[in-house]
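Consider the following input, taken from an annotated entry for Iron-sulfur protein NUBPL isoform X2 (Phoenix dactylifera).
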Amino acid sequence: IRRYSAVAGKDPSIAGIEDIVAVASGKGGVGKSTTAVNLAVALAKTCQLKVGLLDADIYGPSIPTMMDLCGKPEVMSALEKLTRGVAWGSVDILVVDMPPGTGDAQLSISQRLKLSGALIVSTPQDIALIDARRGANMFRKVEVPILGLLENMSYFKCPHCSEKSYIFGHGGAQKTAEELDMKFLGEIPLELDIRSSSDEGCPIVISAPNSSAAKAYTDVAEKV
Ligand code: ADP
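Applying the prediction step yields:
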């Protein structure tokens, strides 16, 4: 059982929660939320941990746009309510889906939640990897241990002939992880079932636990 907070010498910042682990990305759309949900389920199922899941992407909610609402919410007080205002019970790991990016908001969340670790998600594209580097620098600045870099949408596996196509390039994330002295957590393929299961509200680790994609997430859970 992981005890990052103990290793880092930090007291848990929310009563009842041992460790708070962020899933972060330098930019949006790389699969951060998809990773957060599948990792949370994999940690619960495979590692038998009591897991909480928090959507902290409170800076980019879609509802105000869809409902034509304006005004500035008090964001940090919302975070307080979502964390210390919730009866979490006893939780081993709280997985936090961070807002994308590497600005003051992310820094502030990292410090307020006293993160015990952060996992960075990137696609293989150079531009996404540059942003991933910024993410790594940000976490180092606030002394949050980086659990590793996970490459999402690594390759497309043809459902007809099973050939792998490296649509966004290949090998870049592993190289970046080595350069930045981070653990490389593996490759998650670009797969229709990952997207459709998420859209249906049943992450692939639950809907198709024996699929290779689910196994890829389980491997990540075992590595972090
Ligand atoms: P982020 O949180 O980084 O903005 P999301 O997790 O919301 O990204 O993913 C963006 C879109 O890409 C979603 O529609 C999601 O279902 C899809 N997606 C993410 N990862 C994969 C994958 N490995 N294979 C197929 N679709 C994916």
